[in-house]
Design brief:
alpha+beta, 7-stranded mixed β-sheet, 7 strands, 35% helix
């Protein structure tokens, strides 16, 4: 009992010291994205990037991002400046889904327990004509962008002459909405919180900053992506700007950025379950 009291008092002392200015300097590098007034599509989970990403990515994120946030009752961090600095790290693989939200004084951990995060698609909801167009969209979207091979381009050009609606992104999104089975059971998950000092928040954020996070592309892929590879996403809203990086869990990845994300995992006490840096056991 005395040991527990000592630990608690030491924690309070160290946090009070951090409030006095010890090791809490954070200088954010240039980069990231400015916020955009969300006039339409406010369900889009990476709103500042909406107009700059390829159509294929935009449709994918609009679909999967919305359902992920809904399943875990998570806010859309991309719509407007936050009054507090927030970093949200999401990890997903076939067996694990967890969300670690880092703020100046707290780490919140959500871990999936049961339920379907992304709803099933029921193609029987489509007419035969719609099914045909749906299959074409799934294979060739976006059809109004140039294809890498002449034979593929010829095929797409021929399809567009017969079905001009294939040039419409909104029509594809309507088909996706129609086939989506929204009558699914609620996702259940555990929620835990760990109190941290501002100096610990600064340490973790400075690792992210020094690893080049704010100047990274919004997606990072492996040279050779493994089958059923997991992935992780680090999203930030610091009030003055927004950023997000989606990464595949790549073999041999020992980058400083991945190590910094692993430090967040470690601070959340998930490092026995989630290991982003491949050479570590």
């Amino acid at each position: 009992m005395r040991i527990g009291i000592f630990i608690f008092l030491f924690f309070c002392w160290s946090c009070n010291n951090s409030k006095k200015g010890a090791n809490i300097n954070i200088i954010y590098p240039a980069g990231g994205y400015s916020f955009i007034d969300p006039t339409t599509d406010t369900l889009f989970s990476e709103y500042p990037l909406k107009s700059i990403m390829p159509k294929k990515d935009s449709v994918r994120i609009a679909y999967y991002g919305y359902y992920f946030l809904k399943s875990f009752k998570e806010p859309n961090l991309s719509l407007r400046p936050s009054p507090t600095q927030i970093f949200r790290l999401v990890y997903e693989d076939r067996a694990t889904e967890c969300i670690v939200t880092l703020t100046e004084t707290n780490i919140q951990i959500k871990q999936w327990k049961h339920g379907i995060v992304y709803p099933e698609r029921d193609l029987d909801r489509l007419t035969d004509a719609e099914k045909n167009l749906y299959y074409i969209f799934e294979r060739y979207f976006p059809l109004d962008e140039k294809k890498p091979f002449p034979q593929t381009q010829h095929r797409v050009d021929s399809l567009l002459k017969v079905y001009p609606e294939l040039a419409s992104t909104s029509y594809y999104q309507r088909l996706l909405d129609k086939v989506t089975d929204k009558n699914i059971g609620d996702v259940t998950y555990s929620t835990d919180n760990i109190k941290i000092c501002k100096s610990e928040f600064a340490r973790l954020v400075n690792l992210i900053n020094s690893a080049g996070y704010w100047s990274m592309p919004y997606e990072i892929h492996c040279n050779a992506t493994p089958m059923d590879a997991g992935g992780f996403v680090l999203e930030a809203n610091i009030g003055s700007k927004y950023n997000i990086v989606n990464s595949t869990h790549c073999p041999g990845d020992t980058s400083n950025y991945t190590k910094a994300c692993q430090e967040i995992i470690k601070a959340a006490k998930l490092d026995k379950k989630v290991n982003l840096v491949w050479y570590e056991n």
